[in-house]
Amino acid sequence: MKKNIFYTIAALTMLMAGCKKDFTNPNAATQEETFASDRAATAVAAGLQRQYATTAASPLYALVNANGFVTKELILRNAGNIPELQLFTGDSAVDATNTVLANIWTRSSKIIYDANNVIQYANGLSDRSYASGLIAFASIFKALSIGNLSMLWENVPDTVGQNVAFIDRIEGFRKAVAVLDRAIAAYNANEPNTLVRSRLPTDIDMINTLYALKARYSLFAGDYATALEAANKVDLTKKSVFSYDPLAQNPVFESATSTNNVFQPIDSTLGLPVSLAPDLNDKRIPFYIGISTDIAPRYRIKGFYATNTTPIPIYLPGEIMLIKAEAYARMTPPDLAAALTELNKVITKKPSEDIYGVGADLPPITGPLTQEQILTEIYRQRSIELFMSGLRLEDMRRLGRPLSERKRNFFPYPFQERDNNPNTPLDPAG
Fold this sequence. Notes:
8 strands; mainly alpha; globular; single chain
């Protein structure tokens, strides 16, 4: 992420409005003026990363925050932080005023809106190799935004606009996959040229990220064959990250790690019940958890939020392996032997064998295991491998964990949406 991209996009991006999803600003440049050139449209595309992955208002930070509290990954450091206190308390304490949830909802809607405009502009370009880069990059953030909404709410808006209809969250995941499919087709038909690549953040591997997200959301939608096919196309030797610098800092470090005033990890159990707690020899624990010997609390954030410039991966190799394991285990008929093979790749992986240094380095599990046993172990390994990734709440529901292990199942719809959209569904009970 380059500073000049941030300065350019600050001048170009339209000011966010409320949850009416009417993102026009009478004092800003019109859409026609903003998309007057390839360079300007590319600056809007690059700005999607800034919207998604920087500051405490970003969906990335808010997802780690909200998910971590209700899944018991995190402890609250300051009860004066009312939105976090709601989430830490859980159940009916979480209401529609919660600004952490509102940030996910509003910013995700804005990202989808901007991504749609970039994709529409790109579809009109005669230079298809330039267009494919814009489409691929914008589609990554559109899919992430649709996917995040679908992980946290029972129903999600079908599109952006005023008084939009809602669709079931599983349809939301399918919509994200459709976005990714169109981007993959555009990329494979005309690989992005060096010009568009030079104008976009270079640390995101577009094609591997598209396949990784397709595998993720296909799994969440219950389409196991598609999830497996997409996962098999991800090159696990390639990194794809959000990069930071002192001006555009890692948002979790900036707001939580460095201040010690919002949240910290609960402890070395990572919030898992005793029956699923990590092995004491698991090398992922010292990767993700630091120990303070002088200032409370004892357990501290490390891993991908350790410094202000630590890059945050969009997906991990271990996630892709575990997607394959779950897909094999859930197919009809299930292939439990193949599932255990993929599961053991994560369990035995050494830190030196992982491009990010995430490795358990434990002995393999010996079979045979039942389908239920394998799915339980997949949940355990996802909880450790993907700690503080924002994915655990979705994993809990999909892998059948008891309600007692989480503080909420789904979230209430923000008042900004309910007050402006008569189609907003009723809030879930909890």
